[in-house]
Structure formats: structure tokens, C-alpha cells
Amino acid sequence: MSIIDILLHIAAAVLGYVIGSVNAAVIITKYILKSDVRERGSKNAGAANVTRVFGPVAGGCTLLLDMAKVMLVMWLGGVIAGETGTATAAIACLTGHCFPIFFGFKGGKAVAVTAGIGLYMDWRLFLICIGIYLLAFLIKKTASIASLSGVTFMPITMLILGGFSASQYVVAIAAVAFVWIMHWPNLVRLAHHEEKAFAVKKAENAAKTEK
Hints:
Layout: H1 3-20, H2 24-32, H3 47-54, H4 56-98, H5 111-121, H6 123-140, H7 143-161, H8 166-182, H9 184-191
Helix pairs in contact: 1-4, 2-4, 3-4, 4-5, 4-8, 5-6, 5-7, 5-8, 6-7, 7-8
């Protein structure tokens, strides 16, 4: 890899991190709805908590925007530095989403961003993982279990479908790692049988929402 290639990958990484740091949950709740989601419900700046506290419209917008931003940076990364640039930008976007420079390094848990990564790589991969997510959610009624299930099956589904490059597997494995690490508090609660079932509550009752 030449110096120019290295600089292009650095540019893709910086771009991915900066755009990834634009957290839709914080922007929608703090600046539009005037109530920071990081201080409500589970205090997580992600689509699930936005849905839990502010309802499905706000949560759906958060989900779509977080998916869109990673798809944008993957495309831009590819334009800048080719296939490995796409991978670099995607991993940087995951980092920015979880640890956003604009919001005190307190972001989301990377589930929506991972969904966007899956859709960008292959719509079939996206649909299968969403199906696993929904099945797990219907069985357990717990967002954390559903998220971990859908994301964990991503590399496995890629192996079954075939045709993915090494850099795409790296991105998928990185996404799984991010989601599991960011869900560590949920895993602790699950181990102690303290994780609550997902429920959409009215905004005025959000302060009582279980973690």
C-alpha cells in the first residue's frame, strides 16, 4: 500500500467517524423534541430507546437516519479508497456512532448502523437478519436479545449466502463486536434476570422506563 493509499484510507476513516458521530437520536430528541434521550428511559442514544420513550415515529426516523449515514459513508469510502475504503469508513462510522465526538462520546449501541451495513452489502442479508431479530423479539419481547440475535447471525448468514469479500467479513465481525460490547450492561442484567421486556411508553412516563 502506497503513501497515497494510506492517506486515502485515513481520509475515509476520518469522514466515517465524523459522519458517524452525527447521532440521530440526540438530534431528534434534544434539539427537535427538546428532551435528550440520553437522560430518559434506558439513557441510550439509539432507535430502540427513542421508540420506547418518544414513540414509533421518532424511533423510526432515528433508525432510518442512522442506517442512511453508514450507507452514505460506505459509498463515500468506496469512492475515496475502493473496497477497503468502504470497510474502513464503515468501521469508523461504527466508532463514531458509539463514541460521537459531538456529543461527549456518549452514543448508541450500533444496532441501526449494523442494519445499514447489512443492507448496503446485500439486501438478502439485511432481510434475513431482520427476520431473525423479529423472531427473537416475538419470542423474548426483549430488544437487547433481539438485537444481539440478529447481529450475531450476520457473519453466519454471509457464509451461507456466499460471495462476500474478506473486507466485508471484517466489517461484519467488527459490527458484531461493537454491538456485543455496547450491550454489556444488558448482558449483565440478562444474567441476573433483570432485563425488562420492551414497551413503548408515553413521553410523560418516560422517566419511569426500565433500563
